[in-house]
Amino acid sequence: MIKVMTIFGTRPEAIKMAPLVKALEADPQIESIVCVTAQHREMLDQVLDLFKIVPKHDLNIMAAGQTLSDITSRVLKGIESILAVEAPDIILVHGDTTTTFAGALAAFYAQIPVGHVEAGLRSHNIYSPFPEEMNRSLTGRIAVMHFAATEGNVTNLKREGVDETQIIKTGNTVIDALKMVIKEDYVFDDDILNQIDYKNYKTILMTAHRRENLGEPMENIFGAVRAIVDRNEHVQVIFPIHLNPAVREIANKHLKDADRVHLIEPLDYEPFANLEAKVDIILTDSGGIQEEAPALGKPVVVLRTETERPEAVQAGTVVIAGVDKNTIIDITENLILDEKAYEKMAEAVNPYGDGKACLRIVDAIKAQFLHKL
């Protein structure tokens, strides 16, 4: 059997690794070992419970006020001892978190091959998103198997000199995850979401949390949303507010007393995915939502000045508004008021695959390792 260890620590990683873990567990030729760092404890546990994943190893590193150096050092030392005991044939890390980079570095020091799931994303600005851009670039230098979601990701890796034989185009595992949780008759635990009139209002779902948007950019974002609902009586907004106190302070300043703005607590993955399926438009500074929403036919307005997911822009499923108040208003109102503009984005072809990414990853690992055993 091939011994495969998956390492992840945050909710976004867990969402995208969960269907892969299930695919590894289902294959009789693979011994699957799950190691979590709990870089995000509570949010990670929600996903583990949803997908019924029980980690063999849990570093439980989360601490109040933890810095990037704290996370890196605790993950590096914790995984070092686990790898010494388990000696997997390959470890799999996902994307661009500090857990991802530190896990890959620990494997490199132990001379264990690294597979990088969702490889090849690049914004080409090492400080935006921070620290994610550098995390994924450094992980890419360590990895020997690069599971790239899109042709654009493949191109980025080739430009950096990665051997073509090490790159496998798979699609994005988030589509696999979505297929596992979306339900047409889904009922929310929060009854506010069940009672919202999705048919007679244009409903906007918003998320905003990026550290680079704190301050004036976020003031502009929330000011734009307030102007949109004030100017358009048939528009409502649902905003699960991030737990960051700085985000909450700015959100309450602009939106607390706004008509038709529903400020709710953060949602677990399953209700959030099903909420994405119900709304009309999504405004976000998140990366993962840029991949999920196109699979659901929802136009995405990106509240950032650049994106490491340009294929979504090229496909027409995503538009970059940046953080200028008037630009956000203009782009969003165009989607609200111009039916043809809305349909063009909603009906654009999803660039992130067919929901079979995990099977392609498992097959690639088997092709690489079975003949060596």
From TrEMBL:
Entries under CDD domains matching the protein: GTB_UDP-GlcNAc_2-Epimerase
Enzyme Commission (EC) number: 5.1.3.14
GO molecular function, one term: UDP-N-acetylglucosamine 2-epimerase activity
InterPro entries, sorted: UDP_GlcNAc_Epimerase_2_dom, WecB-like
Keywords: Isomerase
Domain UDP-N-acetylglucosamine 2-epimerase: residue ranges: 22-366
Pfam name, any one: Epimerase_2
Top EC class for this record: isomerase
Family (UniProt): Belongs to the UDP-N-acetylglucosamine 2-epimerase family.
PANTHER family: UDP-N-ACETYLGLUCOSAMINE 2-EPIMERASE
Alphabetical list of NCBIfam families matching this protein: wecB
Name by which UniProt lists this protein: UDP-N-acetylglucosamine 2-epimerase (non-hydrolyzing)
Species this protein is from: Fusibacter ferrireducens
Gene expressing this chain: wecB
